[in-house]
Every structure is written in C-alpha cells, then in structure tokens.
Fold these 2 entries.
Entry 1:
Amino acid sequence: MADNTASVRALRLGVAGPVGTGKSSLIATICRALAGELRLGVITNDIYTDEDARFLRSAGVLEPERIRAVETGACPHTAIRDDITANLLAAEDLERDFSPLDVVLIESGGDNLTATFSPALVDAQLFVLDVAGGGDVARKGGPGIGRADLLVVNKTDLAPYVGVDVPEMVADALLAREGRPVLALSRSDADSVAELRLWVLGMLEAHRRGTHVPQDPGPMAPHFHADEEHPDGGYVHSHAEDADTHPHPHAGASHGH
Ligand SMILES: Nc1nc2c(ncn2[C@@H]2O[C@H](COP(=O)(O)OP(=O)(O)OP(=O)(O)O)[C@@H](O)[C@H]2O)c(=O)[nH]1
Ligand SMILES: [Mg+2]
C-alpha cells in the first residue's frame, strides 16, 4: 500500500477513566516514549482549571505549545461525548498549527466509571483503571471498561501494597471485554511501557491504512448531578443518543457524581 502518512489526518486518541487513575501520567509516558519518532499534540479537559495541561507542560515531555487545555465549564463528559465542539476545534487548531501531526492525545476530565468518547471526536480510546481502585472494579464493567479499544490496569507497582492480584484483575477484565486487549501498566516497568508504545504505533498504522474503524463503546450510564438550584439537590441524567432527551444544566451549576 502507498505511504499515505501525509494525506491522513492525525490519529486522535482518547484517554478516559476515573479520577486519579493516571491518565495524565500515561499521556506523559506515551509522549516520553514516542516524541522522538512521532509528531504529537495533547488536549486536556478539566471542568474549571487547566491543571492537567500545566502538569504535562511541566513534565517537559513536549513543547509547551503542543499541549492545549479545554475548560469544559460543565458536565465534563458532555465535552467528549455530546457537544464535542470545543474539543474538535482544539484538535483542528493543534493539527493546523503543527501540521502535520501524527497523534493527538485527548484526556477526558476525571470522572466516575462511565465516561466514553464519541467516535466523532476520537478514532480510538483507552480506558484507564488503577489497582488502587480495587481488584473488583474491572468486573463491574461499563462501556469504557467493556469496549474501549484498550483497557489499561495502571500502577501495577502499587499492587503489593493494596492487596491486588494483577493477573487476576487482568483476567477479569479480559472476560468483561470478551477478549479485547488489556494492558497491565506501571510507568516504572519498562516492559509494560514498551507494550503501550507498540499498541499506539499499531493503532496509528491501522488508522493510516484505513483498517481501524472507530468504535462507540456506548453511552454512559445515567448518573447524578448535584445542583443547588434543583429542588432535590440535583438530578439524574443520561447521555442517551437523542440530544433532545437529556437537557444539560446551564454553565456554572455545580456538579458532583
Ligand atoms: N505508583 C504509581 N503512581 C502513579 C503511576 N501513574 C500515575 N501515578 C500517580 O497517580 C496520581 C494521579 O496521576 P494523574 O496522572 O494525575 O491521574 P489522572 O487520571 O490524570 O488524574 P485526574 O486528571 O485528576 O483525573 C499521581 O500522584 C501520579 O504520580 C504509576 O504507574 N505508579
Ligand atoms: Mg489528569
């Protein structure tokens, strides 16, 4: 097949998962492993801050200008799932400013277990769990755990301290995912970082060849949003496919999960 690396836009790779499981650190690890051979850009999503972008800039793994923050200002998963405009604009800006880019990594806002990216925003997505969240969490399933392109079980170096059996957690995850790939990762385990690097390169190759079809892991489960102005102190909403059926609160409302 002809080399069409110049004609295919950058691979957009989403990184989602619960708060603190190591999404930003994983992006820093990917940048460290691949910045020498690929042209990379990063977009972070936070509700009210640009903390993740600042962390990644200070990690010194990419030129600071290649790392952009989207402040979602509301439900953080809306910005990666329903109204993806801000993220699409940020990706297009990065791709134009540093043309050509090979990969744009997009970190979702830290969340509960339910966030997934729209396939209209990313070509492929990783879902990140960590061993500190408990060995059972992979069994609990959910769209990201079940159907993201890669599930990462992160911080395996901590497993002895939190009493988690990593092979068992990986086996549970493989079952929940019907064989889709699972990677046990620690940033301090070079072999696991090498596997992550190969997975990204493989996905980039498939994207360029047109053999990878972006998958929708499915809408997130209904979840609770705290809202001081709501008579019940909040409301449950879902991200069903029909945008008319799930009104979103005005910007500025407080949120909790
Ligand atoms: N032991 C260990 N700690 C890790 C590893 N990866 C990340 N951490 C630590 O886990 C904590 C959270 O990491 P982040 O990368 O900020 O996690 P995050 O998912 O981006 O967090 P939010 O964006 O706030 O949701 C930090 O203290 C990291 O240093 C790892 O492989 N091993
Ligand atoms: Mg982060």
Entry 2:
Amino acid sequence: MDRRIQIGGRRYRPFPGFLVLAVLFLVLFAGGFVVVKAGVGKAGGKPQTEKLTAGQPYVTIQTPDVQHQGPSVGSQDTHDQPQSPSVGAQHPNIRPQGTFGGSRYVVTRSSLVRLLGGNGKEKIVLLTFDDAPRGESTRKILDVLERHRAPALFFVNGTYAEKRPELLREIARRGHGIGNHTWSHARLTRIPCEQVREEIVRLNDFVERETGIRPAFFRPPYGKMSPCAYSVLEEEGMVLLQWTWSSEDWRRKSAKSIVQSVVSHVHPGATLLFHDLSLTARALPEILEELERQGYRFVLPDEPLPEDFQGVP
Ligand SMILES: [Zn+2]
C-alpha cells in the first residue's frame, strides 16, 4: 500500500506516529528544562549578596521558628512560613539604629541591617537568639559572645524570663539587647486580640521592671503576625524584626551543620536567627570565628531614631 501523501504535486512519505511523538516530547522536555534553569537563576544561586539595593523589598527563604516545649505551644506545624516583614502597618518612623565605623545604620522593614547612605555591601551582621533565657545554655552563649565582643539581640519569653530573672538581667548587663518574643510563645493568629496585647505588653512590663529597659523589638513566635499584633506594636512603639536567615538550630543534630548553614548563607546586612540552645552554644565559637575571618562585624541597633526622621530605607 502506498502511504505517501501528495502536496503541491509532490509526494511525501508521512512521519511515523512515534517520530512525531518523540519530537513533541523533546520540545516539551527542553522547554521545561529552560524554565527550570531560569527559575534557579532567579530564586536560587546567590541571591542574598547580589540583590541588595536600597529600598528593595528583600525576600529570602524564611524558615519556621523553633518548636520548643514551652507553654501554650500546642501544634506541631513547624513548617509555617513567617509572613513577609514588609506586610502590615509598621510604624514608619521607628527604625532603631546604631553606629558602625562612624556611620549610622538602621534595621529595614525586611530585617536587613543597613548603613544609612551605604551601598548594602558593608559586612555587618545582626545576631539574634530566640526563646531565651532557657537556662541550660544561656551563659555559655553569653560567654562566647563576650570573647568575640559580639553584641546580640535576645528575644525572650516571659515564661522563661519569669523563672530566671537573674539571667534576663545578666543578658542586659553584659551589653545585649532584649527583644519581645511574647509571654508564652503564643501563636498570635489563633488567639483573641486582647490576648495578643496581653502577650506583648505583659512581657514588656516585666522586662522593663527587671532591667530598666523596655523592649524596642518584637519577633512573633513562628514569625506569624496578626493584624492585632501590628496595632499593639504601634501602640507600644515597637519594631517588628524577623530574620533573613534561620540557622534552624532547633532541628539540627550536630553543631557542624549549624555552622555550615550559617556560614554558607551569611551576607552583608543579614539578621541571623538562632535559639538559646546547647547545640547552638557549641556551634557559636566556630561561626563567629569564621564570620570574623570573612571580615564581618556584629552590630546591635539600640538607639531610637529622632522624632523627625523621615527616611525609610
Ligand atoms: Zn520562638
């Protein structure tokens, strides 16, 4: 049987069906591959040091907060993502600042530490420790920080601080900042507004009573803000501070893996998230040594901006 077809006076042998399918498959496969490659180029690779431009919302892969055994932590959904720090009604004129090499720096809405007028490439890093003071490792962490003259911001919970007020005072006395991480590590999206206020204000009152300093920074448990939490922050004149990289120390099995996670993801202006844990205390010396070797310095924004400050970096 002659299977050729006739087009414009010439006769052609039609492509066998499998050949058509194979070509189709190749085209689709190659197309998909290009799309995947493009995605990696945009979202993966080394976005953290290359995308720093002033004012640009800064998005990194953020990871869940620790799932610790503290009170009122009922669920196991550790895979929640913190909401974007740039979402919500953050007070526009409050950006606690500090000084670095004679220049002022601020914490931006996206949790980056930036020099005012800088190019975003200054090797400054903000160290933060959540769920403090748990007690078993707090002093070890304080000792390591002291050896490196590295100030840090400790996000405390009332349930821990109430049991160990002397540790809370010691954190402040040794030159570190104290932030508010709620009284009982509550998930703010699941409790009524009045309770959100209580979670935040009660802890502020306690910290102020014990240390003389009212916390300026707030970090919600699991990174989860609620509309009510935003208004309480405004009432309290506080600043939301999430993080740009989580060490995920709470789920790691070795100090080495904490070191590797941080060292391979640090970038100028990073806010690093750790927890007040023994394994973290063991990893910390190597992390600080390596970051110092790379030329990083540790900063602590602890000065309020002037009332008339208008620039929002
Ligand atoms: Zn926490």
